[in-house]
Every structure is written in C-alpha cells, then in structure tokens.
Amino acid sequence: MVDQTSQFYAILTNVGAAKQANADALGVPWTFSQMAVGDGNPAGLENPPHPMPVATQTALLNEWRRAPLNQLKVDPSNAAIIIAEQIIPADVGGKWIREIGLYDAAGDLVAVANCPPTFKPLLSQGSGRTQVVRLNLVISNASNVQLKIDPSVVLATREYVDSRLTEEISKLDNKQSVRAATTANITLSGLRTVDGVVLAAGDRVLVKNQTQAKENGLYVVAAGAWPRASDADISAEVTPGLVVAVEQGTTLADTIWQLITDAPIVLGTTALTFRDITDGFARLLSPAFTGTPTAPTPAQFDTTPVVVNAAFVKRMGVEYAGYSNYAASTALALSEVGKLVAFANAATPMTATLPTGGTITPGATVTLLCGQGTLTVTAAAGDSIDAVGVPGDVVMGQGDTAEFIRNGSLWRLIGGTALLRYSAIMQGETWLTPAQFDNTKKLATTEFVQRALGSFSGAVTYGANVTLTKADVGKVIRLSGTGYTVTLPLVSTLVEGASLAIQHSGTSGTQTVVVQGGDVIDPGAGLVTSLTLNMGDTAILVRAGGSWALISGSAALSYVDRPTLAQFDSSRQLATTEFVQRALGSFSGSTSIAASRALTAADIGKRIELANGVTVTLPDTSTVPQGATVLISAGPTATTARVTVAASDQLAMNNLSMAVPYTLAAGGDFLAIRESNVWRCHFGTEPLRNSPLFAASFSVSGYSKMPNGDVEMWGMTGGSAPGAITPVTFPMAFPNACHNIQMTYVDSGTQSPASRGGPVQVGSYSKTGFNYSHSGSSSAAQHFWRAKGS
Question: Of 279, 297, 319, which residue sits at a domain end?
C-alpha cells in the first residue's frame, strides 16, 4: 500500500551494472532500446503491496506492456543523469502502472524503477489520455549510452518535437542577431557596457576579442556569470562559417561577423576567431570592390571582354609576367611569353628556341637575358627570326639582352643590347667627336679615344732644341741626334691629365727635358726642373695637380727607391740589392754562440760558430721557407759542440739520416738546407766525415775506403801450424777485386829466429778472402795481413 512514507527510485540491475562497467572500460557504446511497464501485482490483489526495485531482477513483477523508447537524453541540469521516455497512446491501457523496466538492445533488463500507482484508462472506460512515462537514471558515463529506436512506431511528445527543432535550428550557421559585439577583452559576468551599448539581462552579445580565444562565442548577459547562448552552447552548434549580425554599437553597429576557425571545434577548448564580412558582398550592378578582390586569370592571348586580373596584365607585357632561369639549352614554352627569361652557364654554350604556336597573338613579346656564357637564340620549325632585315639566329654574349615581338610566324628583334649590332646608328661615321681634353659624360668616338686614351694621336721627331706646345700633347716626341734641350709646355695652358711621351731616339749622348716658368716635375722622389734622358730612355709626363708628373718610362726608374722585401719573400715583386745579398749571395752575418739555445728565422743566412759544450736547435722547418740555409761550425777546440732539431724534424748528412743530437768534430762544419721537414747538410767537413765514400772501420780487423775507389783492409790471423792451409775472410768484400796481400809474422814475446813463422805463402785470394800457409817452426804462428783492392 502506498502512503506518505513510500520511496520511489530507479536502480541498475546487476546485469545493467556489469554492462555499464564493460562499456566504460572498453569505451564501447551501450544501447537502450525498449521500456516496459507493469502493475507489480502478479497475484491480482485488491490492494497489492508497493513493489521495490531489486538489483537481482531480470524481469518486472507483472509486465503488461513493452515498447520502443521515444527518446533518450542527458538531463540538461545534471550530466550524470539520463532520461528515458516512452509514450503510451490513448488506445492502450486499462491497467495500473506501478513498476518500470529499461531494456537494452540485447533484451536484458538493465534498470528497474517503481512509481506512484497510476491508472492508464482506455477510451472505452470513458476516459482517455496519452501517457508519458519517464525514467531518470544515474550513470557514471553518459557518453557511452545510445538510443536505438524505430521512428515508424515511436510517438513523440510536443516537448520532444520542440526541443529537436530547437537543437537542429541551433546547428545552422546563421544565428539570431546579437545586440552588441565586444571590441576588447572583457569579464564575462555582470551588467556592463559593450561598444557604447548599456546591456540588460537577457541581451545577446558576440564575444570575439578575449585574450583566451577559446572563450569567444555567443553569450547572454546576466547579473552573474554569462552563459553561452542556447543556440551556440555546444560544439555541434558552433561550426566553421557561423554568421551573426550585430544590431547596435558605436563602432560595430550593423556589421556582420563570420567564424573562420576550421573544424574540428571543441567548445571551450578550441580558439574561436571571427572576421568582419560586412563589406564582403559586392553588388552585381556596377560593383565597387575594396580590399584585394580576385578573379580567374583568362587564357593566354584571350581577346574576349572578360575581366582581366594582374596576372593576365603582367603576362601581356605591361610589365614582365614573371622570371624564368635556365642553365641549359631549352625550347621555350608558350608560358614564357611576356616573361624575362634568363640563361646562365659559363662552361657550356646554350641555345634558346623561341615559343611557337598559332595561339600566340601578334604583338606578344619575350625578353631573353644571357647571364653567363654564350646564348644562341633560334626559331622553332616553321618560324623565323629577323633582326632589322638580317634573318637568322641571334648570338648573345654575357650580359646581353634581346627582346622579340611576334608577327605571324616571325619573331622580330626589337630591343635589348643584341639589337645594337644591327642598328644603323651604331654603324658608319655618324657621331661627332668631342673636343680634345673633353672629360664630360659624352659618348666618345674612336677618333677621340685614339687621340686621348688609346694609341697616341701622332708622332713627331725633332733634331734641335724645341719648345713644345699644346698641339704636341698626346703625341710621341722623338729626339734624334744628341745634346738637345726640350722645353715642356706651361702646365697652365693644359687640362688635367694631358700627357706627353718623350723618347731619346738618338744613337749617342743625352737629351735634356726642362720646364717653363715656375713649373716643376714630380718624379715621386722630390721635385726637379729637368730630366736627363740617356740613349733609348723614355719619359711619360702627365699634367697633374699643377705640375708635371713623371709617371712612367725608363727615366722614372732612376727615381724609384723600393723598400727591401721581407726575408724569404717569394713573390714576383722587384728585389733590391739588399734583398739579393741577404737571400742568395754572401752570408748576411756571423754569430758566435757560447750558451745552448734554439736558433730562429733571424739566424738563417748566417754563419754560426759553436763553443765547446754548446747545443743548438735548428729552427722548426715549418717556420722557414724551403731552401733556407745556415752554416754551422764548431770552434777549433770544440770537441763537444752539438746540433739537434725540433721534435718533428730530421737531420741528414747528404742523404744519410743522422741521430740527434749530432756531435761535430773540432773545427768541423756543414751547410744545413731546409727541405720539407729535414735539415739536409751539404758541403763542409762533417758531410765528408759521414760520407760512405770515406767509410772506415778502425778495429783490429778493419778497412778504409777512398772516393777514388781505393779500398784497403787489414787484420791478424788466429794462428796456424806449419804447412796448414788457413783461410782468412775480409771484414768486407772488395767491390771489384783484391789486387795485393802482404803478411808479416807476429812474435808476441822475445824476437826469435824468423823461421818460427815464415816463410809465408798466399793463395786462392778473391774479393771476400784468401788462404795462406807458413813453413816456420811455430805450431800457432800469427800474422798481420794487409790487402789492397778496389
């Protein structure tokens, strides 16, 4: 029985709870499809007990109707509650409703609820109504819940229809106008003034200037926090292209704004950007465009009355339509017409074939530039090139340009530097020669250049004293004979840069050049008033700064005082005698060294004498040039003077590597020459002492070699008995042959009769040794021997 203490609620069944947990864990949808109602009175009692939902239920106590859901939605006030709704039509009923069940697509009872007893009458009972049954259910994740319905059998309430219409209309891009729009970041709460408009609660506002752009959108003014407008408060209602009109405002009244943010849009997360499109629509009749309107580019060479754009105009030649660059021979396409086309290849000559085709309109142009190398411009098959009546290819050099204009199948050369060679004005004697000494920016003829800068304008010979005049300027003045005086023109009568070339062309003696008045000659080493020319001398004199400057000719060399170049300089500059003496001739000095030290580049070219016990280190070869030399010698009594080298360098006597430090003999010397990282020693006594040509071994059994090939060896035998033939091996083999062997008996004690070790016989001698025997009385006689050979 139901009274004021009865409880009404809905719960998930155990099956429903398990399915919800599975949907939440796996992220899979959970589909509700039907709702059942029952009277909770399976026994047919007059006053049955009130049914209470139990989680273990798998069916209602007494179900009398099951039908598809009308709608399933999330409670707008609580996202954790879903509302399931079913409509019972007027012709169904005649029973009580005390229990409600919710079934999923699999047919399982997933939720059960009780409700206050409600009688659903039939029309035949004299009362009829359409009954709406709703079930509110708390779940953990509403996003996984879906509704499965058959629209053909489901009834809709007016509320449902109204809400659906509102939802769909809210998704349209065109939104209800707003009263005002923001112009800066604002606080989204309270009653405030926006763009000069005093807002009231309920006014719609376009918020578009928030620092956090995700806050932008459509809002409704409220005394507290502003909510988003109902037609733009979910992501599905805020889509790219959303348009809204502004009604009032000091600056934004009667403007139209469009959302230009791209999808996907998540409201409250995605930054929203609005653009003013008020002036984005032009009238069809006499439109007045602003901003940067665009139009399609007409086809190349189009002559119809279509609207042209900047690309078409550029291509037609009002200015170049573009710039192309090639590094190899190329047949130009129609798209190159109207462009500046550059070619550049310093290594390989190039060929440019001009565009061809019947669609090229007369007057179309193309301009070519040769940036590097050479370029030959030719025509395609069926076309031709004409350069002012000269048909054929056009050859361009580096820096040349050529402009061609189309006429039928002909490309005519009409501009650029390549045209100059064909121009009549550039040929023939049609130009005026500027006055002598003209230094303006006029064009110069070949006559002017010959007279002023290139070849001398003439030559004149004088055989007597002469005073030159302005007419002689620019000429070669030849002085024959001898002993004449040539007087220069006054510099005040000449322009800056006027020049004279004077030559002593006589066969003997001297000629004298003098100045007039207070003029002077500046040869670069003090001012003089005269020059003396020896036979064959020349002097180039130029009027500069109010005097005669001697700038060239053999006469100028006598005034040159050149600095001595740095030691080891190997450039092509002129060398002074000081440089030559230091570098190639006599040694530049001598230095005695009494204490050990490292030599430097300043010691190169000198004679270095070492005291006894001194060790010097030759300069690091990386600090001196190839071929640098220094003479090293030991003092006459210096028996312990030594030489060493840097860590990465070597010391060699002639071509033999020497261990360092190297000890010189008293008075010994050598000339060290830098070769790569080797100080190679030549000349002097030390190279001779170490030369293989003077090799020697001064042991008991030794040898001595001479440069002339003479070789001498010596030794002492180990002893032999009378008559025994005993072999002797030389310390080294003779290079060619052994010529002579001498032997002497050795008596280690008191001299005895000679017969103890002699006489001696020698035999079987060769380059490597000999045999000997004696007929003396000693059974172990020893003998000195000496052999000579070559």
Answer: 279
Same domain (yes/no): 17, 140: yes
Which residue, 487, 543, 547, is CA-closest to 522?
Answer: 547
Reference 351, options 380, 321, 384; nearest CA is: 380
Q: Are residues 176 and 127 in the same domain?
A: no
Q: What is the pLDDT of residues 47-83, one digit of tens each?
A: 899 899 999 999 999 999 999 998 888 887 787 888 9
Which one is predicted more confidently, 779 or 289? Answer: 779
Cα(606)–Cα(617) distance, integer angstroms: 15
Same domain, 662 and 731: no
Are 364 and 317 in contact, with CB atoms under 8 Å apart? yes
* C-alpha triplet 150, 28, 72: angle, nearest 5°: 35
471-483 pLDDT, tens per residue? 888 889 999 989 9
Q: Quick one: three-class SS letters along 267-297?
A: CCCCCCCEEECCCCCCCCCCCCCCCCCCCCC
Tell me, yes or no, whether 603 and 672 share the same domain.
yes
Per the domain annotation, does 296 fall within a domain? no
Same-domain check for residues 326 and 389: yes
With tokens 């029309």, the residue in question is: 123
The verdict on 158 and 175 lying in the same domain is no
* Number of structural domains in the chain: 6
Q: pTM here?
A: 0.30
**Distance between CA atoms of residues 325 and 319, nearest Å:** 17
Are 536 and 529 within 8 A, CB to CB? no
Tell me: the pLDDT tens digits for 170-215?
Answer: 556 688 999 999 999 999 999 999 999 999 999 999 999 999 999 9
